[in-house]
Amino acid sequence: MKDLSEQTKSDIHEIVEKGNPTQDAKCFVTCIMTKWGLLSEDGGFQPDGVRKVTKAIREFDRNPAEYKDIDEVIITKCGAIEEPEKCNKRYAIAECGFKVFTEIQG
User: Fold this and answer.
1) Which of 16, 39, 64, 78 has its CA 20 to 30 A from that of 103?
2) Per-residue pLDDT of the chain in tens (106 residues, 90 and over written 9)
3) How would you class 38 by CB atoms within 10 Å of its CB: exposed for 0-12, middle for 13-18, buried for 19 or more?
4) What residue spans define the domains of the chain?
5) Architecture of the domain spanning 6-105
C-alpha cells in the first residue's frame, strides 16, 4: 500500500462511489487491489491480504478500534462473490470492501 500515491487511492474511491464504472475503470481498480494483495493474479479473493491491509489501516488510523473486526466482516461479506469475467469479479469484490468501510465509518 505504501507505494501507491494518495491520488491513486482517491481515484479508486471516486470510481467506486460514482458507480457504473467503465470496463477500463473496473480493470484499473482490480489491478490496484491485486497489487495490494487483496486479490490474486487469477482473480481469487485473498483473506490474508485483507487482514494485512486492515492491520495497516488500524496502525495508522486515529481511531483503530473503529476497524477492530473489519477484516472478518469484509472476508465474510465479500469473499464468496462469483462473477465469470475477471475484472467484473475483482471489481465486485473491491466495491464490496469499500462499502463495508463506508458503512463502518458512517
Assistant:
1) 39
2) 444 556 566 777 778 777 788 888 888 888 888 888 888 887 788 999 988 888 877 777 676 677 778 889 999 999 888 887 878 888 888 889 888 887 876 6
3) buried
4) 6-105
5) Orthogonal Bundle (1.10)
- CA 29 to chain CA centroid, Å, is 9
Q: Which DSSP symbol is given to 45?
A: B
Q: What are phi and psi of 45, to 5 degrees?
A: -70, 135
Question: DSSP code of 43?
Answer: S
Whole-model pTM? 0.74
Largest CA distance in the chain: 39
Which amino acid type is present at position 39? L
Is the CB of residue 67 less than 8 Å from the CB of residue 57? yes
Radius of gyration of the chain (CA): 13
